[in-house]
Amino acid sequence: MRSPDIESESAAHAWRQRHPMYDRRGLRESQLMQFQNGVIDRTTWETYRSPFPSVLKPEVARSPWETLVAMGTINANFAREINEYLEVIPDEGPCSDPVF
Predict the structure, then answer these.
(1) Structural domain boundaries of the chain?
(2) 85: CB partners within 8 A, 6+ apart
(3) 49, 28 in Cβ contact below 8 A?
(4) Using H for helix, E for strand and C for coil, what is the string for the chain?
(5) Considering 1, 26, 68, 97, which has the largest number of Cβ atoms within 10 A of its Cβ?
(6) Are 53 and 91 contacting, i.e. CB atoms less than 8 angstroms apart?
């Protein structure tokens, strides 16, 4: 029997392999830094982050996201920003936003 940590890492790895959000995560992290440094405006940043609720609100996606955050795979500042956003935004269903 595997330990919970290995199972969590395996689930996170599988999620990274098949999840389109992970492919664009680095880009979104960069866009957050651009917003924080005044390179892009709030409206642009809010547009870029808008798909996250439909991608990460489902429980099936939250667990691998949290594992990736805990492993340090996802920038802590970026994860905090997205997690805070997820707490205040209502669940809007599947993501159909082409920006993502």
Answers:
(1) 4-88
(2) 49, 52, 53
(3) yes
(4) CCCHHHHHHHHHHHHHHHCHHHHHHHHHHHHHHHHHCCCCCHHHHHHHHCCHHHHHCCHHHHHHHHHHHHCCCCCHHHHHHHHHHHHHCCCCCCCCCCCC
(5) 68
(6) yes
* Confidence band of 58 (pLDDT split at 50, 70, 90): confident
* Residue 74 and residue 32 in contact, taking contact as beta carbons nearer than 8 Å: no
| The total number of residues written for the chain in this structure | 100
Global model pTM greater than 0.90: no
Q: Is 85 in contact with 49 (CB distance < 8 Å)?
A: yes
Alpha-carbon gap, residue 49 to 17, rounded angstroms: 21
Whether residue 81 has pLDDT greater than 60: yes
Tokens representing residue 8 in the block:
């969590």
d(CA 33, CA 81): 11
